[in-house]
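[User] I wish I could look at a protein chain and see how it folds. I have put the entry right below:
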Amino acid sequence: MAEDSRTPVTVVGLGSMGGALAEAFLAAGHPTTVWNRSPHRAARLVALGADHRTEIGEAVAASPLTVACLSAYDVTRRSLEAAGDALAGRTLITLNSGVPAEAREMAAWAAGRGARFLDGAVKNVPSAVGGPDTLLYYSGDRAVFDAYEPALRALGGDTVHLGPEADLAALYESAVGALLLPALLGFFEGAAMVTARGLEAGSMVRFSVKWLEMIGSILPVLAREIDTGEYGDAASSVGLFHDALASEELLGEEAGVDLSWHAPMNDLLRRAVAEGHREHSVSALVEMVRKPPRSV
């Protein structure tokens, strides 16, 4: 497929992310057909040049490539069931939430309808779609990815093929996504502390970003320790974190914040110390995550 080709694309699902995907395809010059269960969501995109179809079968049939951005795999399947045999001979890419097993089921479902399939994930917010640094990754048949990579780059400049297994995007989406809520809860906890003192949460943003950048800088070291299983060279040990638990309790009382969400993390630290990891790098906590706690 030539780099300057403009592949016709159908976008199924026009929520915040789906609408951003359709807009990015339109901005890049791709003939774009859109469908949504609630038709009014298409109005803004039609004004930008999209072709709106109210029947999903017609929308799928309008393009060789359909990008589905619905909430979950089962919702995607239920919506596309109404397309009948329109998927046969076409390519379906799903960008929705779910787990690897669901991605494998989706791949089998698509194959049963004669469609080629990729699964994917957008690793950014809707407003970043189309940006040169925005990351999207995909998994499935490499030949399918290669055929549509020029079109997919309209969605983000950092476009990655993870491998031929259809569930790899869902695996990495789950693995990388595990960072989000704990990081946000940490920020919310800090915000509760500073606002309790009459300070603005915004006052800690610059410092929080610097801290996250520091964490990012040490991830390659921690990943190497996990990959090799060598935890002996501890820049930050399990014991260092474990010994801070008493101060954490005092902090919660003084600041008047609920730290109960720390309990599972603290339990991991205690188990790690009990199993001989006190002097090991904090990366050794992965060994606790890999196995359930012993029954009492």
